[in-house]
């Protein structure tokens, strides 16, 4: 092994994280919002807009008017953030050893190039780095949630809604505590997940993305000394809202990150419901309630050629767990900052994209997995036909109702059905014979005699269709 190649020295560089390697295609849409480059692009945007905002508001008295052409050129330069800008910032940071200061110097250099260098000290005016960073992270997270994560999450629920509609009437034997229980329909069981996920999406869609720009300890101290008599909180609020964020008026040096913790908790909860979906679908596949459509040319097992492994659901399950471990850690860490400032959030927030990436990967796998399933109605019907004893609930409920109407001999219905069915297999003829000897009114006896496990699903189909309709109406 002495002559082995040092993989870290290979050019172009190899990825360490699977999100940047094996799973890059799934995670790639987040790069535009939550990568280091995206953070710097947002910093350039925030610094440029703050410069323009100050120049136009006249908050710093004595400065000349910013020309429209200068404003247009600056905005176009900021919007054109590209590989060349990234390299320039890297060069500045090698000198400053400070990422935000590198952005400031880069903008000042551009202002010199367009003849606006006399206004360059308005760049980063009265700002601490966190003034720029908190707004930049908020913009990145907002973009990631609204443009990438939410559309993918909605696609997953769309897939479930299509399946729930298709399988609304398809009866299945339920399993409570892993044992045969009152039948339902596959569509209704999928509708449960639609309803759960829909509630969480409604919470996430209402997220407030907060921001602040109030100086080193949140007091506007430098602002009022440098330019007294200005209503600086109003200037700051107008700027934060101009960026499309919600203003946080009372902070220390940092924006308190509580909104991030709230958002991450909501996404984590959505992930956990998806985890439950993944394990349920995996279980249905193992029970042969669903069969998987093989991918042409794909290998299920390296040694057992008959297998089609439920890899999409297993992959989703694992990545949801990784995502939640990070989201839970982020939510816990980011709500604490010692006194007026510490830097634990600085390195922590750089992992937001990783947490979102594993969630996005999982959601994509769930969509792909659901898309390659076929409901095995033969297996569903066979399982129902093996478990007529689940109708014991129906029979005892009819007996209870008859007792309440004054029909004699209907006392202790639960005990009578328990004696017949508990721990026993009961087929259709045996159950009908039992019903015929109960002394129920003819109408009740006929209704129970016609009942089968596959028909004992209540209004499951209606529930499924109502839920899918509600989901589609919310879209």
UniProtKB/TrEMBL annotation:
First-tier enzyme category under EC: lyase
Pathway assignment: Purine metabolism; AMP biosynthesis via de novo pathway; AMP from IMP: step 2/2; Purine metabolism; IMP biosynthesis via de novo pathway; 5-amino-1-(5-phospho-D-ribosyl)imidazole-4-carboxamide from 5-amino-1-(5-phospho-D-ribosyl)imidazole-4-carboxylate: step 2/2
Keyword Lyase on entry: yes
Residue span, Fumarate lyase N-terminal domain: 21-316
Signal peptide: none
Adenylosuccinate lyase PurB C-terminal domain span: 337-457
GO biological process, one term: 'de novo' AMP biosynthetic process
Free-text function comment from the UniProt entry: Catalyzes two reactions in de novo purine nucleotide biosynthesis. Catalyzes the breakdown of 5-aminoimidazole- (N-succinylocarboxamide) ribotide (SAICAR or 2-[5-amino-1-(5-phospho-beta-D-ribosyl)imidazole-4-carboxamido]succinate) to 5-aminoimidazole-4-carboxamide ribotide (AICAR or 5-amino-1-(5-phospho-beta-D-ribosyl)imidazole-4-carboxamide) and fumarate, and of adenylosuccinate (ADS or N(6)-(1,2-dicarboxyethyl)-AMP) to adenosine monophosphate (AMP) and fumarate.
Family matches, as NCBIfam families: PRK09285.1 (NF006764), purB (TIGR00928)
Family recorded in the similarity comment: Belongs to the lyase 1 family. Adenylosuccinate lyase subfamily.
Listed name of the protein: Adenylosuccinate lyase
Organism of origin: Brevibacterium jeotgali
């Amino acid at each position: 092994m002495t002559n082995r190649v040092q993989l870290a020295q290979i050019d172009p560089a190899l990825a360490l994280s699977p999100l940047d390697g094996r799973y890059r295609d799934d995670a790639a849409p987040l790069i535009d919002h939550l990568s280091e480059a995206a953070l710097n692009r947002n910093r350039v945007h925030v610094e440029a807009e703050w410069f323009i905002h100050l120049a136009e508001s006249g908050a710093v008295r004595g400065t000349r008017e910013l020309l429209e052409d200068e404003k247009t050129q600056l905005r176009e330069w900021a919007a054109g953030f590209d590989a060349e800008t990234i390299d320039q910032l890297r060069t500045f940071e090698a000198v400053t050893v400070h990422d935000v200061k590198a952005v400031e110097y880069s903008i000042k250099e551009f202002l010199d190039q367009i003849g606006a260098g006399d206004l360059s000290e308005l760049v980063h005016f009265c700002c601490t780095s966190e003034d720029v960073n908190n707004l930049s992270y908020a913009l990145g997270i907002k973009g990631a949630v609204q443009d990438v994560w939410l559309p993918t999450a909605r696609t997953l629920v769309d897939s479930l809604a299509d399946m729930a509609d298709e399988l609304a009437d398809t009866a299945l034997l339920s399993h409570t505590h892993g044992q045969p229980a009152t039948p339902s329909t596959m569509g209704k069981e999928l509708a449960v997940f639609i309803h759960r996920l829909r509630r969480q999406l409604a919470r996430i869609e209402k997220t407030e993305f907060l921001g602040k720009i109030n100086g080193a300890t949140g007091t506007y101290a430098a602002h009022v000394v440098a330019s007294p008599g200005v209503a600086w909180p109003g200037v700051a609020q107008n700027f934060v809202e101009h960026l499309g964020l919600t203003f946080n008026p009372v902070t220390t040096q940092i924006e308190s990150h509580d909104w991030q913790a709230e958002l991450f908790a909501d996404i984590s909860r959505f992930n956990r419901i998806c985890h439950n979906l993944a394990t349920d679908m995996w279980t249905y596949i193992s029970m042969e309630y669903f069969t998987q459509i093989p991918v042409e040319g794909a290998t299920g097992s390296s040694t057992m050629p008959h297998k089609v492994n439920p890899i999409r659901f297993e992959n989703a399950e694992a990545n949801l767990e990784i995502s939640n471990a990070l989201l839970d850690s982020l939510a816990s860490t980011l709500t604490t900052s010692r006194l007026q400032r510490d830097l634990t959030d600085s390195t922590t927030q750089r992992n937001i994209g990783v947490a979102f990436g594993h969630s996005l990967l999982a959601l994509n796998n769930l969509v792909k997995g659901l898309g390659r399933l076929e409901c095995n109605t033969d297996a569903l019907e066979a399982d129902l036909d093996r478990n007529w004893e689940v109708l014991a609930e129906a029979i005892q409920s009819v007996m209870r109702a008859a007792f309440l109407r004054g029909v004699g001999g209907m006392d202790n219905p639960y005990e009578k059905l328990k004696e017949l069915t508990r721990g026993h297999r009961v087929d259709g003829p045996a159950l009908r014979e039992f019903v015929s000897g109960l002394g129920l009114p003819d109408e009740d006896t006929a209704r129970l005699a016609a009942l089968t496990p596959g028909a004992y699903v209540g209004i499951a189909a209606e529930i499924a269709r109502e839920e899918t309709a509600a989901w589609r109406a919310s879209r």
